[in-house]
Amino acid sequence: MYTCAHCAVKACYNNTKDKMPQNCPMREPELYVGLPEVYHEEENLRIFQESAQIEHDGYCQWNRVYETIEFIKRMDYKLVGIAFCVGLQREAAVFDRLLRAHGIKTCSLICKNGGFDKNDFGIADENKLKGCGYEAACNPVGQAKLLAAAGTDFNVVIGLCVGHDTLFFKYTETPFTVLVVKDRVLGHNPCAALYGAEGYFKGEGYFRKKFGLPPADQLNKNK
Ligand code: SF4
To answer: CA-based, 20 to 30 A from 121: which of 52, 73, 108, 127?
Structure first.
């Protein structure tokens, strides 16, 4: 198995291939056969080159919203889909207005489209947030399919639930990016838990239990 997350050498990054760790994937060059050709396919090359240019032009200056708008403009996408969570409708509306202000056409679709009840998908009443009665189910497959039917050539995901986003990614046939990752507790900033895991959450106290973190010695044993 690869353990790049714990690699201190980073021979790939530092161009020191003579120092590759034993389990480095680059020790198996056959794994990389054909990959450069994929990047040279017309659409992929354009996406890749515009991404690299944005990284260069706005490095540590442009926030993600700005970068996303810039990418959409440089890619000349004609109709941008916004697949958003009902809990982030306000943020979706702001982003939608920003895109329109830049002259970009949009099509926004809420997660609850279709008006299915959670019961329809095998969720029992006792596992609903409200306990019983109608509770609208998220419909990420519908978001993927309806945005495709509307003719979007690029989609932006705003705060779909973990797992629901998995279904959106599985069924979308349109290139997309993620603008917002939902984290109801940490202001949609999951990195805060990662930063805290070796900081204030490190002890055995309230936050550690709340975030389901294993004891510190287990967390660090793969280092
Ligand atoms: S040098 Fe190899 S093992 Fe280390 S991060 Fe790069 S690809 Fe992963």
So the answer is: 108
